[in-house]
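I have been asked to look over a protein record a colleague put together. Thanks in advance; the entry in question is below.
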Amino acid sequence: MALSTPTVAIIGLGALGIVTLKNLLEEGFDVTGFEKNDSIGGLWRFTEASQTSALEYIPSHPSAAQVQQYLDNYAKHFELESHFRLKTEVLRIDRVKEQQKWTLTLRTSDGKEARETFDKLIVANGTNNMPKIPTLTGQEDFKGEILHSKDFKRPAMFQDKRVVVVGIGNTAADTATALCGIASQIPRKMPNGNILDQGVTYRMTKIQFSMAKWAPSFAENISNKYVKKRQDEAFEIKPEWKLDSPSMIHALPIVSDSLIAELHSGRIESVAGLRKVNGERQLELEDNSVIDVDVIVWCTGYSWRYDFLGEYDPTLESHEGHIPTITGKAGPHQRAIPRLYRNVFSMDLPESLAFAGLAAFHTPIFVSADLASQAIAQYWKKPELMPSKEQRQMSYAKHMAWANRILAHGKLDPRFVDAQVWTEWAEKAAGVHISDHLGYGLTGWKFWYEDKEFCKMLMDGIYSPHFLRLFQSDRRKAWGGARVAIENANERVRERIAKASEAAL
């Protein structure tokens, strides 16, 4: 009797869910993706934006609308749309232990509830789904408007209003500069500036990984000094702005071409933190000063939400050996470090429950999600690849020890993993064989001898996501167009550098 094709439910059809669905389909699974909104894309879908034409080439600084168009094109190209269930919200998930299946309670587009059962489950609803909105003392007396950055859509709505933006991250920087209302005047060219990620090579990445493995403090110091040097070359940052520069291991860097210019112009003023509401439109700050405002925009991030998984929620704080907070201090916290194998698989049910988007480091999340979902597909296709429970527990213990070392000196984003350790595991699990062909083993020397010029391009050229599809594997198919795509990407970078050099003369 032939075995039936395993069914897989994917919750969430943002970028994480879409690439995961594609990779599972590619390996022969019967996959259905659920999305509560009426379109794919997650947070990239800006409902008030007009549609753009199809993009043949994604610019270096794409807008949200362009990223959304890319995701739409991706879904169409790989014929994924027939596997989408839009306007369908997952209300609850139950584990049917007798059948070893998952039952989803759904609210469909007509408002009715329904139940469906699947063999396997991937949670890809992301970590940006529950806005964190603090409450100020005396807030009930405030007569102005209070909103979270998730609801910030049109800057023109706040024209001539006094707005305070709370937060010091990329969202706060984008929100504050958008409110200045002079986007067309924002300088795009900075002194000695260029596109940093186009200078990141495979060789450089491997050197950084080796340094982080054998001399982590030295590697952290070198990375921070390099980024600080590039920052100071491009911007003049005044001490009175009190813009902290924490290590990149403790916080994501702010990437904004316009924030510093707006601070210099005075259109954005850096102030102390909020303490309390003093009146109908007045706030008291932590330095005892008072400001008058009409609008408060909280750019304070999001909380994770996995409570619909019940006892299988990986952030439950009852798990043994769990760090309950991102600071390491005692007390509840909704963003506890997830109890997962490699930040991907359930520790208790790895054969049927996995998560997308909870393994992160300083690399594009689209790329790491692609690699992680390839690993999921291979482990589920060939169950014998899954490590034993003891091995998974040992791996998790090592991850927690790594996290503890960082938490001893500051904060840690609970999604963060040791980049070198995780990438080595994921590439092997997915079967992409990059390290084999670009390493110093027999396969690497053979590849270099047979194609020296292309090997050098891979080592010292742009580190393209096409690497993941380049080499044939016993686990997954290579993409025949990967080499041409890599060569074209390098040619575009060379042309851009040449034009920039000419413009500088």
Remarks:
- The longest strand covers residues 89-96.
